[in-house]
Amino acid sequence: MKTLGIGLAGARYGARMHLANYAKLPRDIVEVRGVCSRTKESGGALAREFRIGFATDDFDALLARKDIDAVDICVPPALHHEFAIRGADAGKHIIMEKPLTGYFGTAGDPEPIGTQVSRARMREGAGKNAEAVREAVRRNGVKFCYAENWIYAPPIEKMRRLIAASKGSILELRAEENHSGSNSVFSRDWKSTGGGALLRMGVHSVGACLHLKQWEGQLRLGKGIRPVSVLADTADLIHSSAARRAGEAGANRWISANPVDVENWANLIISFDDGSRGNIIVSDVGLGGLNTRVTAFMTDGVIKSNMTANDAIETYAPDASAFSGEYFTEKLETKAGWNRPSCDEDWFRGFAQEMEDFVGAIRENREPRSGIDLAVECVNAIYAAYLSAEKGSRVMID
Ligand SMILES: NC(=O)c1ccc[n+]([C@@H]2O[C@H](COP(=O)([O-])OP(=O)(O)OC[C@H]3O[C@@H](n4cnc5c(N)ncnc54)[C@H](OP(=O)(O)O)[C@@H]3O)[C@@H](O)[C@H]2O)c1
C-alpha cells in the first residue's frame, strides 16, 4: 500500500497536535506533504519546523496536489463544513477536528447572533450544514474521519471491554469536562465557533455518550441505542452577579475566558430509547487544569474513566517554578503544591490512537471508529440542547 499523503488545513494548536501524532506512525505509512493557513507566515513557519514540502494560503492549491490523498481540517469551526465539502468534491478523504459544524449566522441576522437569533433557526441551519457534509462524503465516496479523541482514549477503550465482559446495561452515563476557559479569540463569538462551552467542549462528552450507547446496542441488540430527546440548561456564569461580586472583592483572578455572546456552562440530559440517560456537564469556569471524565453507572457495577489528571505520577513543590521546564497538563494554573501531570497526554486522551485508526481506515478502505454519522449526531443533539435551554423544556431529537 502506498504512503498516505496528508494536506493540513490550519497551522496552529489543532494542526500541531495532529502533526505530533502523525509523527508517531512510520513514515512509509503516512506523510504530511502540505499545509495551508490563512496567512503565508504561519503555514510557512510550520512547514519549516516540521519539514513539510509545501505551504500555501490557498486551500484550492492544497486540493490541487496529486500527492495529497486526505485533507486534515484544523481551521476554525465556521470553516469546517465548507472545507470538508470542497475537500470531498476534490476527491480527498477528510480528517476533521471537532465540531463537525454549527450555525454561524446568515446575511441579515441581527448581531450578536448568540443573543439575537432564535435557537430554532440555528438548529435548522446547523442541521443543514451537517447533512451537506454527509451528502458530499457519500456523493464522492471518500472516507470521513471525525477526530473525537475521547472514544479512542485508553480509559474509554477499557470501559468498552469491561461493559462487554459484563451482562449488564448502562443505566446512566455521566460525562464532564471543565477548565478555566478557552484563550482563543474565536471562542468568544457565536459566529466564529457556532456556540459556547456546550459545542466547543461538550461535543466530546456528547460524542462519548452517543458512541457508548450506540456501541452497547450493537453488542447486546444488534442495533444501536438511539438518543430520543434532550433537556438542557445553559448559562453565562462569567458575567453573573456572583462573579462580579468576587471581582469587586478583589478576587476572581484566574478565569481567563471573556465571552461575548456564548454560554460558558451547560448541563444536558439525553434520554435514550432504552430508557437510560446521558448526563453531561461542561464548564469554562473550572479551575485546576483540564478535567475530562466519563462514568458508566451500570446495573451491575460502576466504571469511572478519567482521561486527564490521574495519580500515575504526582508532584509536590512549594515554588511554582521548580518544574518550570516540563509540561504538566493543559490549562493548569500553577505547578505549585501537589499536582498530577499527565505522563503522556496524547496517549491518555486518545490523540495518538485516533490518528492511527484514521490512517489505517483510509489505507485499508474501512470505516474509522469515529466517522460521519457520529459527527452529524453530535451536532443534532447539541442544537436540540440549545433549543431546549431556550424553551426551558424537553426537545425531541429527530
Ligand atoms: N480535540 C481537541 O481537544 C481540540 C483542541 C484544540 C482545538 N481543536 C480543534 O482544532 C481546530 C483548530 O483549532 P486551533 O485552536 O488550532 O485554532 P486557531 O488557533 O484559531 O488556528 C486556526 C488555523 O486555521 C487557519 N485558517 C484560518 N482561516 C483559514 C483559511 N481561510 N484558509 C486556511 N487556513 C485558515 C489559521 O491560519 P493562520 O495561522 O494564518 O491564522 C490557523 O492556522 C478547531 O476546530 C478546534 O475545535 C480540537
Which sequence of strands runs across the widest sheet? 12-11-7-10-9-8-15
What is the C-alpha radius of gyration, as a whole number of Å?
Answer: 21 Å
Beta-strand share of residues: 15-25%
Sketch the topology as an H/E string, one letter per element: EHEHEHEHEHHEHEHHHEHEEEEEEHHHE
CATH arch. level architecture of the largest domain: 2-Layer Sandwich
Bound molecules: NADP nicotinamide-adenine-dinucleotide phosphate
Percent helix range:
25-40%
Name the CATH superfamily classification of the largest domain.
Dihydrodipicolinate Reductase, domain 2
Q: Low-confidence runs (pLDDT<50, min 5 residues)?
A: none
Query: How would you state the average pLDDT, rounded?
Result: 96
Can you count the helices?
Answer: 14
Number of strands: 15
Class inferred from helices and paired strands: alpha/beta
Number of domains: 2
Which topology of the largest domain does CATH recognise? Answer: Dihydrodipicolinate Reductase, domain 2
**N- to C-terminal distance:** 41 Å
Major sheet description: 7 strands, mixed
Shape: globular
Write down the CATH class of the largest domain. Answer: Alpha Beta
